[in-house]
Specification:
Order of helices and strands: HEEHEHEEEHEHHEEE
Helix content: 25-40%
Radius of gyration: 17 Å
Shape: globular
Mean pLDDT: 92
Structural class: alpha/beta
Strand order of the largest sheet: 3-4-7-8-9-10
Largest sheet: 6 strands, mixed
Length: about 200
């Protein structure tokens, strides 16, 4: 849901589809709320298709999944969109956790991202922990060389681009700036922006 507002501000017509409704972020350790059944995802796509709009979808962006079964429903929607519009993109943000806090998703979700979603996506947007899990490691990547090697390994499985959304301690500035990395078959790009104090 965090992506909806900035995309709309950029003029993108966004059709949000929630996978969960929780009281708070799962990194607090406890929460209440509901994981929507996978049929919820399918039914929303059915409704969009019924009014003839699925063929006008330019991209599917997936993020937090409340269950492995939801993931398969999302991939079904991606396949339906691509059948109607082959040039449509699938951008997978494999939300699993944070390098400093560990993996915080339901059983089976991390495995689903690694086994199914990452290879099906055109663009994958992991952080360093998520990139490690997608490439068979159990710990966050600690250096820029490790990140680049893992991104290359992920590219070999199908995505056209791997966008590491936050390098943290693996960056060249060791967490003193906000660093990101984009890897494609054409090359690798690294950008950094200063972290400003808000004291």
């Amino acid at each position: 849901s965090a992506a909806v507002f900035p995309m709309r501000r950029l003029g993108v017509d966004v059709w949000p589809l929630n996978t969960v409704q929780f009281s708070n972020h799962t990194q607090y350790g406890k929460w209440t709320g509901h994981v929507f059944p996978p049929e919820h995802v399918t039914q929303i796509a059915d409704g969009i298709e019924a009014i003839g709009m699925l063929s006008s979808c330019d991209a599917v962006l997936s993020g937090y999944l409340g269950s492995e079964a939801q993931g398969y429903a999302v991939l079904d929607v991606v396949n339906r969109v691509k059948a109607e519009r082959p040039e449509a993109l699938y951008c997978c943000d494999p939300v699993m956790g944070h390098p400093e806090k560990g993996c915080i998703v339901a059983p089976g979700v991390a495995e689903f991202f690694a086994r199914e979603a990452a290879g099906a996506a055109d663009i994958v947007c992991p952080n360093t922990l998520e990139l490690a899990l997608l490439t068979g490691r159990d710990d966050a990547l600690g250096t820029l060389d490790e990140v680049r090697a893992a991104a290359d390994a992920l590219l070999s499985r199908g995505p056209g681009a791997v966008f590491v959304k936050h390098l943290g301690a693996a960056g060249v500035d060791a967490g003193r700036s906000f660093e990101m990395l984009l890897a494609t078959a054409e090359g690798t790009w690294h950008v950094a922006a200063p972290l400003l104090p808000f004291d």
